[in-house]
Structure of Glycosyltransferase family 1 protein:
Amino acid sequence: MDESNHWYGHSRILARYCGLDARRVPRIQGFVQHGWNYLHGFPPNDRWASPGYPRFVWSDVLARRGWSMGRRGHYVIGSPWAYLLAMEPDLGRLPDSERRGTIWYPFHGWEKHSVRGDHARLVEEIKSVEPGPVTVCLYWLEYRNPQIRKWYEKAGFRVICHGDRGSRWDTKGVDFLRNQMVELRRHRRVASNRLGSAVFYGASVGCDVAVYGDPMELEGERPEYGGTARRLRLWPELHGLDVDRRTAREIARYELGFTHVAGPDELRNLLGWEKIKEAS
């Protein structure tokens, strides 16, 4: 259905969970939330979403928020990350004693809107807080930009990218979440200048959490989200240099919809795959 269903390998993860051939992902009859979102799971101006098709969201709070804004057809299924963990609970797992340093995720833009912020200042703040070693993970757009990448490389940080966003027609993003899980589980701590998917993913697999630094601004950022003030108001306990690990993990499991993971048969029915044969 929609191209965003296939970003970061999400549709392939769901297909594999349902026992289908992940190499030939069937069309999902609806729209799957592709990243953590504190509105209703989708962009404010989601007129691109065809009327009558369901929206599959990660948590029940997003469904309730969507209903309060006049949107219908929200189904709570949990995040693709939760399904990946259900299938591969030990992927990349290391003993706590072998986990080292911090993986840091600067806030990123996308093709239509770039981020305004001072990477040089952010580098200095990271250096002042993190004892190291530090891995900086850039989004594919920023990773391809040598002007941005050089700030982190010059600081002596290891700079990586989990992969391209990908699509249904290529394999660029097929291992995005698997790569991310392996990286998160090799680090003791996950940090970012904005609360987002990566922070919750890290908390769910045992990372300590920190959210600090210039949150930067996305060009054309919609007022419906409420900006940094709203994130601080709703999740004050997740902001700061040293966040309580147990609290972060509990909130992450809720936001990622771990309790809403459906069984393979139920998920096939929800996604419109009930008549597709399982992989042999």
